[in-house]
Design brief:
Elements: H1 4-17, H2 25-46, H3 48-65, H4 72-80, H5 88-118, H6 127-134, H7 137-149, H8 166-170, H9 196-199, H10 204-215, H11 225-230, H12 234-248, E1 253-255, E2 258-261, H13 266-280, H14 283-300, H15 313-333, H16 347-361, H17 367-387, H18 400-431, H19 460-467, H20 471-481, H21 483-491, H22 500-503
Helix pairs in contact: 1-2, 1-5, 2-5, 3-4, 5-18, 10-12, 13-14, 13-16, 13-18, 14-15, 14-19, 14-20, 15-20, 16-17, 17-18
């Protein structure tokens, strides 16, 4: 029924949709092996023509360069007819692109499946008649059987939960540095170093990735691992950042008096991302969005981005300490949010986290808690409008109550789409083992490449130090990602503090 390639792809998709950590190095090697073979077999029909075209053009240019003008056409014709096998380096570049493509299409359909299931989105009215016209009755019967099951009989959709010894972390009895894991399943090479990446499509992929390099780091030039990953797939590099940024990071956006994005606050979005990546135990997402969360709380307490209140030096120091402490508690208790100290989360944040957890673990049951989420959103919206921190979009003159109802629907849609996307993104980063960034210096080079880094920039954990990500937050995150280390600490076979290098011996992506 399935080819060897399709079987390996189905293994990939099955792990992606349930627990990406179960997709092993052996599984990765097997998929790469059948992809290489498939590429070689299909090359004569799908790829050789391009090599022959380039060979003909190169031969013609060579003749012109040597002044053999009357031989140029003949040289091109001879070269175009030459048989050329798929070169190993070209095949490897294709395999890397195929892995990235598989991961991102799984990402998209995990996201859409979550949205449609959690929000009970129905099929279009015409769809049943269309299906009966193209599908056999036994296929329709199987689809109906699966639809009737809904969320019953599904395997777990996330990795096993890790319960933290919160009290030991709070009182400093456990201290663990983040593990600097390496071993991405596709090469991560900067376009600054491998300048050939920019020449393949006249720089369009690099140009598209620049939107992510600046936008995902909030106005700083920080081309991280995700940017380098996207460079394997130029079309994706051009479109992923413009797609994700308005959904994931925008605050309220307005066009001609109409609100077009940012319907929920940046703080609420980051708490959603933290909840997702704690539940799925996705290292890249958890490590990066913990830093973003601390930044957001610095903003909230007036010591981050504008608008900032006028504060004395001593007031700024106190406010920063409060912000760091609040963000730390959000990280520590996000898994068991109901047990958090009073004031850690708002009523809206508690309702949102309950809904998000249902969304990614039992999406068919998310609607059971959607009512509470809507109630808290509604209450928060009216409070924010009343105190002047939110503008209500009433265009085109629909009135206050209708505008509130519309805003609520926009918020549910935005929360659903960003939850689905970030769940899928975390799975993609886990299954491809995307590494966190290390520090680089301007002018540094890598062996085998002619380019050099354009700027000096810190690694992710250097940025942690600058932002103020606390030791306790780092410890909590690493132990969530490192259950073997937690077990060793509990059994006393390893003692605190644990260095990042030591933690890396048992860490998971």
């Amino acid at each position: 029924t399935f080819t060897p390639l399709e079987i390996e792809i189905l293994k990939f998709a099955d792990a992606f949709a349930t627990n990406p950590k179960t997709w092993t190095d052996e599984d990765c090697a097997a998929l790469k092996r059948v992809l290489r073979q498939h590429n070689r077999e299909s090359y004569s029909e799908q790829g050789r023509w391009m090599a022959q075209l380039e060979a003909a053009r190169a031969a013609r240019r060579g003749a012109l360069a040597k002044g053999a003008f009357d031989q140029a056409d003949h040289a091109a014709q001879e070269a175009s007819g030459a048989s050329a096998d798929l070169q190993d380096d070209v095949n490897e570049r294709m395999v890397n692109a195929q892995l990235v493509e598989l991961a991102f299409l799984c990402l998209q359909f995990v996201a859409l499946t979550g949205v449609f299931s959690a929000l009970n989105i129905p099929d279009e009215p015409f769809f049943p008649d269309f299906m009966t016209g193209v599908l056999k009755p036994e296929v329709i019967a199987r689809l109906n059987e699966l639809n009737a099951l809904g969320g019953d009989e599904l395997p777990p959709l996330v990795p096993a939960r890790v319960d933290l010894p919160i009290e030991d972390i709070l009182h400093g009895r456990l201290k663990v540095e983040p593990a600097p894991l390496t071993g991405a399943r596709v090469p991560l090479v900067s376009y600054e170093i491998d300048t050939e990446q920019a020449t393949r499509d006249k720089g369009l992929a690099v140009g598209g990735a620049q939107v992510g390099a600046w936008g995902w780091s909030f106005g700083s030039y920080f081309p991280g691992g995700l940017v380098y990953l996207l460079m394997h797939h130029p079309e994706l590099a051009r479109f992923e950042a413009p797609y994700s940024l308005p959904l994931l990071f925008n605050e309220d956006e307005w066009r001609n008096g109409t609100q077009t994005g940012g319907f929920v606050t940046r703080r609420l979005k980051e708490i959603v991302y933290l909840k997702i990546y704690t539940t799925t135990r996705a290292r890249y997402g958890l490590e990066h969005h913990t830093m973003f969360l601390f930044n957001i709380f610095l903003d909230e307490y007036g010591v981050g981005r504008p608008p900032r209140p006028q504060l004395s030096d001593s007031e700024q120091a106190v406010a920063r300490e409060r912000a760091i402490r609040h963000a730390e508690e959000v990280v520590l208790y996000v898994q068991d949010h109901a047990a958090a100290p009073r004031g850690t989360y708002t009523a809206l944040e508690l309702a949102t986290m309950e809904w998000v957890e249902r969304f990614i673990t039992r999406p068919h049951h998310a609607h059971l808690v959607e009512g509470r989420l809507r109630q808290e959103l509604e209450a928060d919206n009216r409070r924010e409008v009343a105190i002047g921190v939110r503008r209500l979009d009433t265009s085109p003159g629909i009135g206050i109550e209708a505008a509130h109802r519309r805003l609520l629907d926009h918020q549910i849609a935005e929360l659903a789409m960003l939850t689905g996307h970030m769940d899928g993104l975390g799975r993609a980063m886990t299954i491809l083992r995307l590494e966190s960034e290390t520090a680089v210096k301007a002018g540094d080079r890598q062996d085998g490449f002619d380019g050099q880094y354009l700027t000096t920039r810190p690694g992710l954990f250097g940025a942690y130090d600058f932002v103020g990500v606390s030791e306790k937050a780092r410890t909590a995150n690493e132990l969530r990602l490192n259950p073997r280390l937690l077990d060793e600490l509990r059994r006393g076979t390893k003692s605190s503090p644990v260095s990042g290098i030591d933690a890396a011996t048992t860490g998971e992506f």
